[in-house]
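Entry 0007
Protein: DNA repair protein RAD59
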Amino acid sequence: MNKISNSTSVSADNHISYNTTEFNVGPGVNLNDLKMTEDWEGRPASEWSVQRIGVLESKIESFSYQIFRSNKYGKHNISKIIPKFKLVEFANEAFGHDGWSVDVLDVQVTESTTTPNQSVETDLNSEENIMHNVIAEANVKVTLKDGTNTRVGGIGRAVLPSKAMSYAKAQKEAISDALKKAILSFEPIILEYNRKVQSNYYVDGLYVSKIKQESYNPLGISLADSKL
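Output (structure tokens):
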């Protein structure tokens, strides 16, 4: 008979604890198959990430306010007008240079066509009269040092006489676009996470054990009063 003790699971009822309970199963059943696993994908894994993402968002918000206040760009999406180097700078300041990393998951050219180059008056069959229109897509994953991460796709386009240069530029712009969107996407992660914490969405034993170990309570919620 399989047996496991010292489980860290707790009941949804705060008055009941299973910390010293021994769980037993009969023949043909493996306790490992019954072990709860919790997916932390798409939500902060520690108090550090909540605080640091807050710092990042304050920097982005301050920069965005200056841009929109000038009325120079009109009402465009911030990802279109904020420079990539500025977002990287904010990320370094918020997380530290070694506190985050970027993985390019994939890059692919989704469209490649040719059109006449209207600015050159030469033979229509000449390579000099052809412009290569290339569209590429890229998926990027940004991961913080505690495991918090976000995956976002981006699109890039290039129109150049050289096919090789068009491919290279389109792919580079796709990666840049995805990176910018990934850094900007930490805000909705925090908003959604905080909403779920307030609504007691995370109620399984693993989550309660984890936040007790970390003394993690960014919203000031009392565990004694909540229904976790």
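Curator remark: The two ends are 32 Å apart (CA to CA). The beta strands are 2-4, 23-25, 100-116, 130-144, 149-160.
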